[in-house]
Design goal:
With 499 residues, this protein is mainly α. The chain has one domain: Growth Hormone, Chain: A (Up-down Bundle), CATH 1.20.1250. A 3-stranded mixed β-sheet has the order 2-1-3. Helix 2 crosses helix 7 and helix 7 runs antiparallel to helix 14. The chain is globular. It starts with 11 loop residues before the first strand and ends in a 5-residue tail after the last strand.
Length: 499
């Protein structure tokens, strides 16, 4: 982009800086400071897993006369309302995340979730609960955009894959927590109260995490692209001081400095055109991966307790316990397979995890249809399927967050999350309707659809996946604000080396 193009409504300040800040962040050894990032930001996935599983675990109870007396269709549709809220929240807060910064938004979105998950526990009928689920979902949807952007921009490139997969896989810690607590509440506290207490647990966790997030800085990479290079330098220097407490000698950063145009604000329409023109195949890849995993997960986990109670005669209060081994398989997948995404590579691992999980789902659906499985063996089959699917799904979020320019990263995450989740938002309602027919064959049609979407996404990844392993974000997708055709004499060098 010429200097003349970088003026006017694009907010150019008329200067370019050369910086090693991204290289310095990638060169940092793993430290306690990085654990602060993982814990403070990664909890979003735990909260979402908790919310999704809690609603699924309580679905059967909410149909009882001592609770809200919902119909089976209404109970299963609560997941759809939550997902619709997440779609809207991701788009709205995703835009603001790229506009005003990562830190402001990951505080606001967590606060929105906290308020309306408490409100969910105070609901008095179906429509009040559905409304509060929409708004709580909006907070979590906004979290995805803000959090995934910040994590990618603060974690060193050499371990970005395994760390992102492990964080995304922590969704299942929330699942296990919700399954255990819902069982304890439903078994030991009367139903009219227990389901309300379940929602309050998520709010308590969110309140504690808000205090940790105050210690997490704004992304230096975001500051660089928004005309605040000096502030970015201060933040990186502070980070390096924190890391030196456990690693006194920091390694020298590798690679060439990056020249960035300093802009006060950036026109989103111009960024969108830039992304569409330069990265169309990455858009197809991201959309395929997100739709496949979103349909599979949303369909299964919002309705699994209904399958257990109606086809395997499992008591509604015990059904949540079956989700705990389920969760174990999903936690193990990203932890065991995650390092391979940084060593073997994205293309091989993404495609294989998607295709294998899809094929295993086809086999499981056939066994379910013929009545071969018990509640226990059905759960074991899910454990194996989602060992692979969990790693693949986590890689989908990693893919859409690392393959697009920094200035549009949060919005890209929001768009693909919203597109995938939006397409899959009706999956809990569809599965609820299939379950209501009391036909195993009809339910298997839903399983086959989910398997087909996963296999198709895996095939797309074979051809379109990008070798992003161990590469700096700026090398995978050049920032929109990267200086083009600017003479060296007009550039200012900032933070060339670690201090």
């Amino acid at each position: 982009m010429s200097s003349s193009a970088a003026t006017g409504d694009l907010g150019a300040t008329g200067r370019v800086v050369e910086t090693m800040i991204p290289r310095r962040l990638d060169a940092l050894p793993w430290s306690r400071w990085h654990w602060l990032i993982v814990i403070g930001l990664g909890v979003t996935w735990i909260l979402d897993g908790f919310e999704v599983t809690l609603v699924g675990a309580l679905a059967g109870v909410l149909t009882h006369k001592d609770t809200l007396r919902l119909t089976t269709q209404q109970a299963s549709s609560l997941g759809t309302w939550y997902l619709l809220g997440a779609v809207g929240g991701a788009l709205f807060f995703g835009y603001l995340t790229d506009r005003v910064g990562r830190k402001k938004l990951f505080m606001v979105t967590l606060g929105v979730y906290l308020v309306f998950t408490v409100a969910s526990g105070l609901a008095w009928n179906f429509w009040s609960l559905a409304t509060f689920r929409i708004l709580a979902g909006a907070g979590i949807g906004g979290e995805y955009a803000a959090i995934n952007s910040a994590i990618d921009e603060l974690i060193p490139a050499r371990v970005r894959g395994r760390v992102a997969l492990a964080i995304n896989g922590s969704w299942w810690f929330g699942t296990a927590m919700a399954a255990f607590l819902s069982y304890e509440f439903l078994s030991n506290i009367r139903e009219s109260v227990s389901w309300r207490l379940g929602f309050l647990i998520g709010a308590i966790v969110a309140l504690g995490i808000l205090t940790i997030r105050r210690l997490i800085p704004e992304s230096p990479r975001w500051l660089l692209t928004h005309g605040r290079a000096d502030e970015a330098e201060k933040v990186v220097t502070q980070i390096e001081e924190q890391v030196r407490k456990t690693h006194p000698q920091l390694p020298e950063p590798e690679g060439e400095p990056i020249a960035i145009e300093q802009r006060k604000h950036i026109n989103f329409i111009d960024i969108s055109k830039y992304v569409i023109q330069n990265y169309p195949s990455r858009g197809v890849l991201g959309l395929s991966l997100m739709i496949g995993q979103a349909f599979l997960y949303n369909a299964i986990f919002f309705t699994y307790t209904l399958v257990l109670t109606q086809f395997f005669n499992v008591n509604a209060s015990r059904a949540p316990l079956y989700l705990i081994p389920f969760a174990a398989g999903n936690i193990a997948g990203p932890l065991v397979l995650g390092p391979l995404f940084d060593s073997i590579g994205r293309r091989v691992m993404i495609s294989s995890t998607y295709i294998i999980s899809g094929l295993l789902l086809v086999v499981t659906g056939m066994l379910f249809t013929h009545g071969t499985l018990s509640a226990t063996t059905m759960t074991l089959c899910w454990c194996v399927i989602f060992f692979f699917a969990s790693a693949g799904a986590s890689a989908a979020y990693l893919t859409v967050s690392e393959l697009f320019p920094l200035e549009a990263r949060a919005m890209a995450i929001a768009l693909f999350y919203s597109a995938g989740t939006g397409v899959a938002a009706l999956s809990p309602t569809i599965f609820g309707a299939l379950i209501a027919t009391h036909s195993r064959t009809n339910v298997n049609y839903g399983y086959l659809l989910g398997a087909g979407l996963m296999i198709a996404a895996g095939i797309v990844a074979v051809f379109l996946a990008v070798p992003a392993e161990r590469r700096a974000l700026e090398d995978i997708a050049k920032p929109f604000t990267a200086a083009r055709q600017w003479p060296t004499s007009k550039r200012r060098r900032v933070a060339a080396t670690a201090h």
